[in-house]
Write a structure and sequence with these properties.
The complex is a heterodimer of chains A (182) and B (245). With 182 residues, chain A is an all-alpha fold. Chain A has 3 helices and no strands. The model of chain A has no long low-confidence stretch (mean pLDDT 84). Classes of the chains: A mainly alpha (182), B mainly alpha (245). Chain A: InterPro entries: ATP_synth_B-like_membr_sf (IPR028987), ATP_synth_b/b'su_bac/chlpt (IPR002146), ATP_synth_F0_bsu_bac (IPR005864), ATP_synthase_B_chain (IPR050059).
């Protein structure tokens, strides 16, 4: 190593004067390196950087989209819920009104029916009473006539007379009844 | 000052150790980054992560921060190649047995500075046309009567001194570091050989100093690679935006 320094010092060469061969080697070496860097290294690294940025940004965009979709769906559900509530209320009100209407109709109908039945019953009773009166009148007349003929031994076969007698008798009875009722 | 050539052995001009190291540096850098970039995955492995960190340092901390804009990607390959070419060639000086920073020989520094010089002038002319030379030498906002002084200064500093300082800064720091380590080594060797025990003992002091200098040199080797690349980015940026300076 001493030898090197001594030789360098005694050589007397100026260190600022370049060796052209060394310049050539540096130039060629740098050119090769630059070519490799331009052609391969930088594109490969840039490709990865771009892919990575895209992966991250794409993920964020995807998440944002999902978020937006979720909140839209939530909005929609809320809207539907509100609509459904309103619908239910409306149906309930309608049902209530309808029920009241039906009830009123039924009441009215029942009242009419009962009135009708009552009137019918009255009429029937009246007609039956009338029939009973007529039949009673006939039967009682016959019975009474037979009884009286038996009692008085008088032939009362003359119908006209008999009917007259019976009518008179019944009229008396009715008058008595009417008097008693009063 | 040149080391003896390897081929032919010992000749003054021939294939030297320095040339071998330059070629080796190209192989090292290309191999490392091609391996790191070969299997590109979104989630990087160790090697890919190291490659991306190194690439991202030049791309973002130098090219993007200094040049900026949307144009900076065009200059990333040049800055990237320069940074790692100089870094590896400088670090040689810190590796035992190799211990020769390639740019302690001035030729390589001249070549790289010349490449950068031609590049930024070409960029300036392409961007601003021939009036780029006026933009680069006539500063705006300077009173007319000072211009006769300012214009020569600008011409000298931008077009003459700039490439010289750019190359010599790299070369001189590497040569100085190389010499200091070499002289310290020789000094230790010389002192250890002395018969006088006290004199022999002083070699320890030299050794301690040499180790400190070695650490400093290692730092400067990395720093000079960064400085050279940073200045390149600044020159390119100045040429791109000459109209706004």
């Amino acid at each position: 190593m001493n030898q090197t320094i001594i030789s360098a010092a005694t050589e007397g060469t100026n260190p600022l004067v370049p060796n052209p061969w060394e310049m050539g080697v540096v130039l060629a070496g740098f050119a090769v390196l630059f070519y490799i860097v331009v052609k391969f290294v930088v594109p490969m690294f840039e490709k990865t950087f771009a892919e990575r940025a895209e992966a991250i940004e794409g993920g964020i965009a995807k998440a944002e989209k999902a978020q937006a979709e979720a909140s839209a769906a939530l909005e929609e559900y809320k809207q539907q819920l509100t609509d459904a509530r309103a619908e239910a209320n409306r149906i309930r009100e309608e049902a209530r009104a309808e029920g009241a209407q039906i009830l009123a109709d039924l009441k009215e109908k029942a009242a009419a029916e009962s009135a009708r039945i009552t009137a019918h019953a009255h009429a029937q009773i009246e007609s039956e009473r009338q029939a009973a009166v007529v039949s009673l009148r006939a039967e009682v007349g016959t019975l009474a006539t037979t009884l009286a003929s038996r009692i008085v031994g008088e032939s009362l076969s003359d119908d006209a007379r008999a009917a007259r007698v019976v009518d008179r008798f019944l009229a008396d009875l009715e008058n008595q009844n009417a008097g008693a009722a009063k | 000052m040149h080391l003896p050539a390897i081929l032919p052995w010992g000749a003054a001009d021939g294939f030297s150790k320095q040339m071998l190291l330059v070629i080796l540096s190209v192989v090292i850098i290309a191999t490392f980054f091609l391996l790191a970039a070969r299997k590109q995955q979104l989630v990087p492995g160790k090697l890919q992560f190291a490659g991306e960190a190194a690439y991202g340092f030049v791309r973002n901390s130098i090219a993007k921060d200094i040049i900026g804009g949307k144009d900076f990607m065009k200059y990333v390959p040049l800055l990237f190649s320069l940074f790692f070419f100089i870094l590896v060639n400088n670090i040689y000086g810190a590796i035992p047995l190799i211990q020769l920073p390639s740019f302690s020989h001035v030729g390589g520094a001249y070549v790289l500075a010349a490449i950068v010089y031609l590049t930024w002038i070409a960029i300036g002319v392409k961007k601003n046309g021939i009036k780029y030379f006026k933009l680069a030498t006539v500063p705006t906002g300077v009173p007319v009567y000072i211009l006769p002084i300012v214009i020569p200064i600008e011409i000298i500093s931008n077009f003459l001194v700039r490439p010289v300082t750019h190359s010599l800064r790299l070369f001189a720091t590497m040569l100085a570091g190389h010499l200091i380590v070499m002289i310290a080594g020789s000094g230790i060797e010389y002192l250890v050989m002395q018969e006088n025990v006290l004199l022999k003992g002083t070699s320890v002091l030299v050794l301690v100093g040499a180790i400190a200098m070695y650490m400093l040199e290692a730092l400067i080797m990395a720093l000079q690679a960064y400085v050279f690349t940073l200045l390149t980015a600044i020159y390119i940026e100045g040429a791109l935006h000459a109209d706004s300076h």
